[in-house]
Write a structure and sequence with these properties.
binds zinc ion, 19% strand, alpha+beta, 3 strands, three-stranded antiparallel β-sheet
Length: 129
């Protein structure tokens, strides 16, 4: 039977290696927008209207502040790659955390009965003299 702890550690090493390889990234969500202008007789006011666009807008929240910026069409491919890299980063980090928790649970099961018992009070132990 394979050692589950060893398998977890192997996967964590793979995750670390992949994280080290990640290219440029940024958080966010791309949305498309179509606009209507103020020019009389413009195609955007025809029937049916042919609005201007698409314009690409990048929205993201960082440190509790939301940001929004327009993305130039020529930068779209690069931005999309950065968003993909960011999603990969989050997925890898989540997987790592999940594995770490699993490893802790496995460790606890294999520990001696002594270390399973919890301290009855929250009073911090005094340092040994
Ligand atoms: Zn127009």
């Amino acid at each position: 039977m394979p050692n589950p702890q060893a398998a977890i550690q192997r996967r964590i090493e793979q995750i670390k290696a992949e994280l080290a390889q990640l290219g440029p990234l940024r958080p966010g969500h791309l949305s498309q927008q179509y606009n209507v202008c103020g020019t009389p007789g413009c195609r955007c006011k025809a029937t049916p209207p042919r609005k201007h666009g698409p314009y690409y807008q990048l929205s993201y929240t960082w440190q509790r502040k939301s940001h929004s910026e327009f993305v130039r069409l020529e930068n779209l491919a690069v931005i999309r790659q950065q968003l993909t890299n960011y999603d990969r980063l989050r997925a890898l980090v989540d997987e790592w955390i999940g594995l770490a928790l699993k490893a802790t649970q496995l460790q606890r099961k294999s520990d001696s009965p002594l270390s399973k018992s919890r301290p009855k009070s929250r009073t911090p132990r005094k340092a040994a003299p």
